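Ops channel
N.P.: pipeline sanity check, posting one input/output pair.
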């Protein structure tokens, strides 16, 4: 199941203002953070899908290209499985069916409802922004 990672954490606006005041590149830092989130989330998803490998179709449907998409000032990056490229099974694996329980590892890696994923993404984003602010502060 595909979804998009976005910047959504408390204090994001303050961080972008601080970075801009230090003449930092907010767009480049945003893209760096999203690409790192994509890398880690995709790696987690690859590890979680391995036990379910039969034909490899679902695994191959993972978004592996970390291309940041901009809509005005909102940046996002696709993660997860492309349904149109064979990722339909990921939905049943992540959420379960009446006969098959959900795969908690896959759920934690990709579900927009996963608190672990939300926490991990926020931490990566904050760390990269603070790292850039510290670098510019000298």
């Amino acid at each position: 199941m595909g979804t998009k990672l976005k910047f959504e954490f408390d204090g994001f606006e303050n961080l972008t203002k601080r970075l801009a005041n230090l003449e930092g590149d907010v767009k480049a830092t945003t893209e760096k953070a999203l690409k790192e989130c994509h890398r880690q989330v995709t790696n987690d998803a690859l590890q979680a899908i391995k036990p379910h490998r039969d034909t490899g179709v679902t695994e191959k449907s993972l978004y592996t290209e970390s291309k940041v998409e901009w809509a005005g000032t909102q940046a996002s990056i696709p993660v997860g499985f492309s349904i149109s490229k064979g990722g339909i099974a990921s939905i049943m694996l992540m959420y379960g069916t009446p006969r098959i329980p959900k795969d908690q590892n896959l759920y934690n890696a990709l579900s927009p409802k996963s608190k672990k994923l939300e926490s991990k993404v926020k931490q990566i984003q904050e760390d990269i922004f603070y790292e850039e602010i510290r670098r510019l502060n000298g």
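N.P.: looks fine end to end. Residues 2-128 form one domain.
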